[in-house]
Specification:
7 helices; mainly alpha; elongated
Length: 159
């Protein structure tokens, strides 16, 4: 998908073009354009840091719940096993822990005003089924560029 700011994945160049046009037209000053660029760069860095922290916390939750190291889990996933298969007898506990974690995040999003209570109720309605399907899914082999930095598709209250 190509956005209004330029080619897919080229948001910085697109933003620069828009801001340059606005400065040239006298709509904003260069100082304002620089402030906008700095603010968006800082916000993007904070967002990336939060994603990394969320991923680390989720990995730790999974590893702690099933009693295996993150490295063991990643290796088993890479070999074609599902999280449910890796968890074995602890599959149900894993699903319960992940549902509780997602529920906590949904509730926090409501408290922060990022979603309504009605939206939260809708998300929670099929949460256990959704988490169970994810836990039991076998992930396809990752191709080039599909590792940690690859596009995973955001789900949940913060995506």
């Amino acid at each position: 998908m190509v956005g209004a700011l330029g080619k897919k994945g080229d948001h910085a160049a697109g933003l620069k073009n828009v801001l340059t046009t606005l400065v040239s037209a006298g709509t904003i000053t260069q100082v304002q354009a620089d402030a906008i660029t700095a603010a968006l760069t800082a916000a993007q860095a904070a967002h990336q840091a939060n994603k990394g922290a969320d991923r680390s916390a989720r990995e730790t939750l999974i590893a702690t719940t099933i009693g295996k190291s993150v490295a063991e889990i990643q290796s088993a996933l890479a070999s074609g096993q599902s999280l449910g298969a890796i968890a074995g007898e602890k599959r149900t506990a894993l699903i319960t822990a992940l549902v509780a974690d997602h529920t906590k995040k949904i509730d926090a999003a409501v408290t922060a005003g990022k979603m309504t209570a009605a939206q939260a109720t809708t998300m929670k309605a099929d949460l256990t089924a959704h988490v169970t399907a994810k836990v039991d899914a076998v992930r396809p082999a990752m191709g080039p560029g599909m590792g940690k930095g690859g596009h995973k598709g955001g789900h949940g209250p913060n995506h």
